[in-house]
Amino acid sequence: MTERKPVASWLTDMDGVLIHEGVPVPGADAFLRRLRESGRPFLVLTNNSIYTPRDLHARLTRMGLDVPVDRIWTSALATAKFLDDQRPGGTAYVIGEAGLTTALHDAGYVLTDSDPDFVVLGETRTYSFEALTKAIRLINGGARFIATNPDNTGPSPEGALPATGSVAALITKATGKDPYFVGKPNPLMMRTGLNAIGAHSETSAMIGDRMDTDVLAGLEAGMETFLVLTGLTARADIDRYPFRPTNVVDSIADIVELV
User: Fold this and answer.
1) Which of 12, 30, 85, 197 sits CB 3.0–4.6 Å from 41 for a disulfide?
2) Which residues are catalytic?
């Protein structure tokens, strides 16, 4: 086996790694502080497309976690970058919140329900029957179907919530068209994030709490991977998958000294 190069940059998931149900995971503040002091490139990633990086910065700050705005990378930003690369200055019909619409506007996209190039589905807590019907008709009319991430459920204090993947399945059932998912586990999200901070996958590590998104995305992007056991994946779940993380640790606190 080829020996890996030392880790020079770090990517970490947010929910389940740095915070859990709105509360910082012990060690998260020390990890982020060590990253800032070291000067090493890093990104905090999330498949949630609801919030802008500025919104997430404010939310994390209120929890006592200091993450600069330019060190937050969302599936909405990755989706906007992908669409800008595919069709610069294009048009899109969007189902989502400010995190997604702002990213697309900043990329120079026009948001419209009149013959758009793309239908873009993101996260929202207010999916409407009218909007979904419009999306189905536009896709049937020739618009390409894009979704920010494949997560079927999202966390909440009350339990699981239906997320983008579940709603995308409804649209697929009605149209016969599968979406292109940009967020994790698509390694595209990792590569665009690495490019944003001038880092390379061969000398980067991905930290996450999910085998099916975080670890898989890091593996496929050619990165060293750390699975933390403070989120959705338990140690007993690892053997259910045909791939393994490079490292398994109890929490982010176990990685502080590696930075």
Assistant:
1) 197
2) 13, 15
